[in-house]
Amino acid sequence: MLPSSYNSVLVAFSLIVAILASYTALNMAARVANTQGRAALLWLVGGSFAMGFGIWSMHFVGMLAFSLPIPLGYDLGLTLLSLLIAIGSSAFALWMVCQRDMPRLHLMLGALLMGAGIAAMHYTGMAAMLMSPQVVYVPWILVLSVVIAVVASGAALWIAFRLRGDSENVFYARLGASLVMGCAIVGMHYTGMAAAQFPVGSFCGAANSGIDTKWLAVVVIVVTLAVFAIALIISMLDARTSILAHSLDQANSELVQLALHDNLTKLPNRILLDDRLAQAISKSARERRGFAVLFMDLDGFKTVNDIYGHHVGDRLLEQVAERIMTTKRAEDTAARMGGDEFVLLIDPGEPEDAAALAQRLIESLGAPYAVEGNTLHISASIGVAVYPGDGDSAHQLMVNADAAMYHSKEAGRNCYSFFEAKMNANAHEQLKLQQELLGALDRDEFVLHYQPKLIAPAGPMVGVEALLRWRSPERGMVAPDAFLPLAERTGLIVSIGNWVIDEACRQLKIWHLQGHADWSIAVNLSTVQLGHPGLVEAVRGALQRHDLAPSFLVLEVTESTAMRDAENSLVILDQLTALGVSISIDDFGTGYSSLLYLKRLPANELKIDRGFVTELVQDNDDAAIVSAIVALGKTLGLKIVAEGVETAEQQELLTRLGCNTLQGFYLGRPVAADELLPNLAAAIARQETPEQGAT
């Protein structure tokens, strides 16, 4: 047999070509797998050529490294055939790895077919030498080379399938896999070459008529490097383009999410709700069926925000959104309008469906919340409008559902109401009143009137109660009952209440300087004020600004207000008492307090509700109740004040029952500060005449 040898430089270069071919193949597999349609087909064709040419180039560089003591050459036709076999095998491999799944059986069949193709390429290339006599192959080594080709193909298919994605560390994974695959391909080639034996006297038939080995070396090296460079550059550019396109898609999705969803709760916002409402109206009009809009407003949320801060308020809103999402049906749309307002679109929805869902929402949202170690309590007021009866446009439905929600607020909160036509007029009036009320304090439209409090039965006067009035340019003098409930709902009562405390202290200081140094002044506190964290500081600031002793200020709290959140009320009232301020329990006898809490309240006086005084006559039930209240108050060491005194008989009977202080129209009407003393003198003179009566 003829002796053979190898050029070590070309052997090393063949290994480099094999590794580059493997890396290119893995990149091509990723591009084919991550594209669709025509782009995927183009990548499959281009990738097949680049990968096939790379494997074929490695083969022929290895052939060029091989030398015999005779001239060698290669037949052009068989050489091109071996290239086509390599490209075909590569196309099959790329097609395999771009499939969604690769079961074990498919992997084995693919490895067998691809290995056979590579072996066919190799031995077709050997046949291109046109040796005479023919090359003799050692059978077991030949079989081993085919086995290596099949196993290497199976490994290459599995690796390419696993690394076809574009993850963060895929470059290093592909680089390592390319080293393994390149070594396997080179191992197959040189195992096949080791199987070939050339008898003495053999000559190469393509030595003179075929491709000259020197030119073949130059062509293969240059073309191979060019193909790899072009393939990899295009692949990287496409990968970067894909990444950029994905980033743009992701950014666009995030922008759409931000534009159409509430940033805090992730619920649809007003824009998306308007679109869903328009779709629901169009669909319902086409199919002649109805749907319902539920407008929800949280009761007590502003108080939570004021006491615990906006951070806790935000966490509470997130929990509210979660409860709405778990309570609603899958086909319903929940949205946040802003603040503490939410809307639920029920499509399709009959009135009974809306009522059942509204009740479930009230029960769910009314359950206690645990937020950052605090147990919070809120409720929901819900208004329901049904299409088409309550409106045939999105605007009408929302306005009417909002009006029904306000009706629920006025009905006591924590309930739901269906829209009725009369609600709209009231809702519009409330909105108009709210707009006027918003600027009333800045425009100095509020005034205080003062009603005298006299030691029973007829004096002297020991103090006054400050009563708020709104002198509106549009409405004239507005009674407190007309605007105070709205002020409480909107939270304006806090700033208005602070003004009342400050103005009352200012006026009392003036009276003290005028010689009435023993007078006190009583100011009413609302539920919202009592729960506000700035109340104590507001009171302290007013007393300091006007240099008024705290004992002359009496803060009146209704029994119901004090008992609404009894434990928190006790804390606030204790802090106020620590300032030296007096506490009066107003409207006593109409609430639901227990004697246990009454004993704990730091009060100085009880004020009997006017409801017991109005019908008061000798020996009736009201007289018995008043007598019991007086006895209870005296037992607890409290002064007793009776309000609503309108007749001489009531004055005489309340005095006999033991009331310490009296207040009412009979003794003096609420008047402006400069009218107080003249009116009081007139009232006393009236009592001294024989014809005493109510004015």
Describe this entry's structure for a reader.
- With about 700 residues, this protein is an alpha/beta fold.
- The chain is about 60% helix and about 15% strand.
- The strands form seven sheets. An eight-stranded mixed barrel has the order 16-17-19-20-21-22-23-24, surrounded by four helices. Strands 10-11-9-14-15 form a five-stranded mixed β-sheet, sandwiched between helices. Strands 1-2 form a two-stranded antiparallel ribbon.
- Residues about 690-695 have low confidence and may be disordered.
Q: Considering DSSP H and I runs of 4 or more, what fraction of the residues is helical?
A: 55-70%
State the end-to-end distance.
Answer: 142 Å
What fraction of the residues are assigned to beta strands by DSSP?
A: 15-25%
Tell me the overall shape.
Answer: rod-shaped
What is the helix tally? 25
Question: In terms of per-residue confidence, which ranges show pLDDT below 50 for 5 or more consecutive residues?
Answer: 690-695
Rg for CA atoms: 47 Å
**What does the main sheet amount to?**
8 strands, mixed, barrel
Number of strands: 24
Class derived from helix and strand content: alpha/beta
Query: What average pLDDT do the residues reach?
Result: 79
Cross-sheet strand order for the largest sheet: 16-17-19-20-21-22-23-24
